[in-house]
Design brief:
- It contains eight helices and 21 strands.
- With 394 residues, the chain is an alpha/beta fold.
- Residues 1-24 have low confidence and may be disordered.
- The strands form eight sheets. Strands 6, 9, 10, 13, 14 and 19 form a six-stranded parallel beta sheet that branches. Strands 3-5-4 form a three-stranded mixed beta sheet, with no helix packed on it.
Length: 394
């Protein structure tokens, strides 16, 4: 039976980049045995049929391999496990909210050693004890979250197991206790096990399926360890972490001239580009969360500008947030102005961790496991904005 993914039965829009060019003629490759969910960026008809083959496996193609491509190409695809009861079982919803955690310092303390609530080291809860941070990671893991890179989220690239939910970690200010180097031994950095990286790497060893990663937003002093700064950043890039721009001098960008804003952002971008060979994320974590509005006259210069001879361009900014933000496939998502969750304790009130994750129990993004498709309940169809295939289920 020929069906489309837009109808409630199944609608399929297959995105395909497996074509190759020969004598200026686009020819059809051999697609049989490949997964339709791994194809990208062209629309073709798909015929889903009952089959014992895995879900999404291409069984037949209407145009033989090596023949010229034309728009009549139709793929016969196994519906395999594309059983909507599987989506219902996991309550898949790829329009759900995604928490971006905002941390600053991680201090080698127990919760009982602080003067404040829970694992807060300071009154406002910007800094956290090592004990609390370990507990946070364990909570996320036990509640079926998997980490993804911040930039992947912003670009709509979410690769998480079915039934799991994406989670993003960020650290501001480049404090030494984020990546505290004890010494460099035989060209290897020896790291304090109670620093943020020490704790994250220990958790990675125990739970490789958690996909540990984080983005560190830095100022001019980098990680405040002059003899190790460049080594630290090189290590992060090589080990599935990212670094980003938190402005050079950590100044309130809403109180500066346009020229000063470009110096703050452009000077820091230039430094990171040089150190990372342009592998730094093109995102700015706003110091003090300022400006609070995209309408501020300085905001355009945070995204794009010039410092001396260095041009920079960023895809978005991070706010000093309070709640989980929208799915990147939601019509409400704004890549330029993304909110975060402050990782602090406040007895379940005012968007502390307990409060936010309680809300997420019913609003969280739950993955289908298909990184090149967006799966949502049928009633949410009008909320989806994406170039990917859309699968609706009841």
């Amino acid at each position: 039976m020929k069906i489309k993914i837009w109808s409630g039965i199944i609608i399929a829009i297959v995105l395909l980049v497996l074509f190759f060019m020969q004598n200026d003629q686009t020819l059809v490759p051999d697609l049989v045995g490949k997964s339709v969910f791994e194809l990208d960026n062209k629309d073709f008809m798909v015929n889903f049929v009952d089959s014992s083959k895995p879900n999404g496996e291409i069984l037949n193609q209407s145009i033989a391999p090596g023949e010229p491509f034309n728009s009549s190409l139709t793929l016969e695809v196994s519906n395999g496990l594309l059983d909507f009861s599987l989506f219902r079982e996991h309550q898949v919803n790829e329009l759900g909210r995604i928490p971006i955690l905002m941390y600053h310092g991680i201090y080698n303390m127990k919760n009982s050693e602080t003067e404040y609530t829970g694992g807060n080291v300071d009154q406002d809860g910007y800094h956290r004890t090592a004990e609390a941070f370990r507990n946070d990671l364990q909570f996320f893991y036990e509640n079926d979250y998997q980490m993804i890179r911040l930039e992947d989220y912003l670009l709509g690239v979410i690769d998480v197991e079915i039934g799991k939910s994406p989670l993003i970690l960020t650290f501001d200010d480049g404090l030494a206790n984020n990546f505290k180097v004890i010494e460099k031994e035989n060209d290897e950095l020896v790291v304090d096990e109670n620093s943020a990286i020490g704790i994250l790497e220990s958790f990675r060893e125990k739970h490789p399926d958690f996909q540990v990663t984080a983005t560190f937003f830095l100022n001019g002093p980098l990680f405040r360890q002059v003899e190790y700064n460049y080594d630290i950043i090189e290590w992060l890039i090589e080990n599935n972490y990212d670094v980003g721009n938190h402005s050079y001098g950590h100044r309130d960008l809403s109180k500066l001239t346009k020229e000063q804003v470009q110096t703050e952002i452009g000077r820091m971008d230039q430094l990171l580009v040089e150190i990372t060979d342009n592998q730094n994320v093109k995102v700015v974590s706003l110091p003090f969360g300022q400006p609070y509005s995209k309408e501020h006259e300085n905001f355009p210069f945070i995204l794009k500008g010039k410092y001396e001879q260095h041009n920079y361009e960023n895809i978005g900014t991070l706010r000093v947030g309070w709640d989980a933000d929208f799915s990147p496939y939601s019509k409400n998502f704004d890549v330029e102005f993304v909110r975060r969750v402050r990782a602090y304790d406040n007895d379940g009130q005012e968007f502390d961790l307990q409060d936010v994750f309680s809300r997420l129990e019913t609003t969280r993004y739950v993955s289908s496991g298909f990184k090149n498709a967006v799966v949502v309940p049928k009633e949410l169809a009008d909320q989806v904005v994406t170039d990917k295939r859309i699968i609706l289920y009841e």
